[in-house]
Amino acid sequence: MSKSSSKSIASISGSVFLEASFYKKPILVFGKKTIYKQLNNSFFVENNEEIKEAIEEIQKDKVYDSNIESIFQNYTYASKTTLKKEILQKLILYLTNSKTKP
Known about the structure:
The protein is built from 4 helices and 3 strands, in the order βαββααα. By secondary structure, it is mostly helical. The chain has one domain (about 10-100).
């Protein structure tokens, strides 16, 4: 995903939310049990009315500050699983490098 390729992202779950958060794009979250609802740029939607309201907000072109790194730290870095930490560090590095490419 490049910074200018989309206005927002909608999904049930997936790493696309991480990319969207990194690029400060709004996300529509349809999944009920997902950590992505905690992101500053997320709109958790459960019905048509909430989808409509979220789209109206997204169309205002607000810039969303990303809290993705703090969520990573609270959710994974505090855990004893170093593999998660290494994977997330690689993901952030990849996104940082891809952000600078055209």
